[in-house]
Amino acid sequence: MNFIQAILMGLVQGLSEFLPISSSAHLVFTSNFYKVFKGIEIVQQSNEEVFFDIMVHLGTLVAVLIFFRKDVINILKAMFNAIKTKDWSDKEAKLGLYIMLGTVVTVCLAFPIHEFAEKLVYTPSIVGILLFITGFVLLGSEYMSKHFVAKKENVDLKTSIFIGLAQGLAALPGFSRSGWTIATGLFFGLDRVNAARYSFLLSIPIILGASMVYPLVKIDIQEAMQYNWSAIIAGTIVSAITGYLCIKYFMKFISKFSLAIFGYYCIIAGILTAVFFGIYA
Asked: Which residue range(s) make up the domain with 55?
């Protein structure tokens, strides 16, 4: 892991984590494009590269916590108050419960498929196909939301379960986490802004959990001492800054425009990368 590669991948992570275009796919593409053009064989990632992926995700977690800090504080306060009073009628307290439920559903689906998902990192052509599918999901959700789905303002129990399932499926690189969760919200009647807000809040516990569990289980401390920490830290900071800016302008964008442009992008990018890596595999 060198400094330029870390900055580039931190930038890619920050831009793509919250846009519905699959950050995992773009990290796979960026890493493997870099290897192709450097003449390096596409092989299993080193432990340092895997750890770096965790760190740049942690950077984007910082971004979402800062941007939605008032929401997070209000939800936590409402939940603590509900525990004391045993009254869960407050909508913010309910939202906190739905986030917890969605996270449990996510883990129940993502855990059994995580080994398969990790192997897909080494077959970027398949990741391109999954990104192609994500594009059609985005376009389909916009069409269904506009023509067939009754609108509602808040997340309910059923919606939280299905959005949790969507987030679990997004363990597969190419299935955009934000794309699939926002699209599911649209399928169940949420508007784009509320669907995105719930999607980003739902990302907090799952990214936090992955960032804590992976280093404890997988990282060898002596090996980690040899990592290029200046590059890792720089990439993490870049991902946090670009992630924050991305959330800010994405929320403004979807309040006025549809997700169609991201759907078309995923379809085109998916085709091109599947073909490219199919040739160079």
From this structure: 3-280
- Residues 18, 242 contacting (CB under 8 angstroms): no
Does residue 141 contact residue 184 with C-beta atoms inside 8 Å? yes
Q: Which of 65, 19, 17 is nearest to 192 (CA)?
A: 19
Strands, DSSP E only, in the chain? none
d(CA 187, CA 164): 14
What per-residue confidence (pLDDT) applies to 26? 86
pLDDT tens for each residue of 62-111 = 999 999 999 999 999 999 999 999 999 999 999 999 999 999 999 999 99
- Whether residue 220 has pLDDT greater than 80: no
The pLDDT mean for the chain works out to: 89
pTM: 0.90
Contact of 253 with 112, CB cutoff 8 Å? no
Q: How far apart are CA 255 and CA 259, in angstroms?
A: 10
CA–CA gap between residue 23 and residue 175 (Å, rounded):
9
Contacts with 23 (C-beta within 8 Å, 6 or more apart), sequence order: 12, 13, 16, 17, 57, 60, 176, 177
